[in-house]
Design goal:
It contains seven helices and nine strands, in the order ααβαβαββααβαββββ. 35% of the residues lie in helices and 20% in strands. It is found in: Cytoplasm.
Length: 237
């Protein structure tokens, strides 16, 4: 999914300029197109849905957290940013969510999500769209509305691995997600394995404020306790 393309020049999204990890092919569209091509073939051949990003536990923690919040309704419009194989939305459909949209910049990824969803025989329709750039006036309308739940499970991590123009890509991503998130009742949920809670709060603080932290498994190393992934819920500023 690509939400980093924009021709505006707003103020910085964060004072965090540097990464403590290296760029990677995991940040490229070519990598994801190739990976989803293979997963699409595997699904057609043997029914394998492919990798669940951060594992099933991560998406289940998000869904369980949502269930505990009585102010979040099942008919809220949901956008899965960088939907990949669509498993996040499929599981939400099974839990009764009724307005589900997934976008990704990888055509094979969207095809995979559509194929898997069709095989599930769900009661709720899920809309999947390929979205390449925000300036494409002929593109589908998925990013021309706002959502009360915007979910990112690894997409910002992939943007963080871009080989060049990282800072501007990050800032545009923050602005675009803010534009997609309903001002009054919207929530942005992000799960990351590259960034800590403090870093994410700093990166998104120009457009969002921290609302909650979804507990994730911890580990202990050298006397220090840490998390393999960070999962945060933001509200628009």
């Amino acid at each position: 999914m690509n939400l980093q393309e924009n021709d505006h020049n707003d103020s910085d999204a964060s004072s965090t300029d540097d990464r403590d990890f290296s760029s990677s092919k995991l940040g490229s569209k070519e990598y994801w197109d190739s990976a989803y091509d293979k997963e699409l073939e595997n699904f057609k051949d043997i029914g394998d849905v492919g990798e669940v990003w951060f594992g099933e536990g991560s998406q289940n923690r998000i869904i369980r957290w949502l269930e505990k919040q009585d102010y979040i309704k099942k008919d809220y419009p949901v956008l899965d940013i960088g939907t990949g194989n669509g498993i996040m939305l499929i599981e939400m459909a099974k839990e009764g969510y009724t307005d589900l949209t997934g976008v990704d910049y990888s055509q094979p990824g969207v095809q995979l999500a559509q194929n898997i969803t069709q095989s599930q025989k769900l009661l709720t329709d899920i809309v999947y769209q390929v979205k390449k750039t925000n300036s494409d006036i002929d593109s589908p309308s998925a990013l021309k509305r706002t959502y009360k739940l915007c979910i990112d499970k690894g997409t910002f991590d992939a943007i963080s691995l871009l080989e060049s123009e990282f800072k501007s890509s990050r800032e545009v991503y923050v602005r675009n997600v803010r534009r997609l998130t309903d001002t009054e009742e919207g929530y942005f949920i992000i799960t990351s394995c590259n960034w800590t809670k403090e870093q994410l709060v700093n990166i998104f603080n120009s457009c969002f404020k921290l609302h909650a932290e979804i507990p994730t498994p911890t580990f202990k190393f050298g006397g220090q306790v840490g998390n393999k992934v960070t999962s945060l819920v933001f509200k628009p500023v």
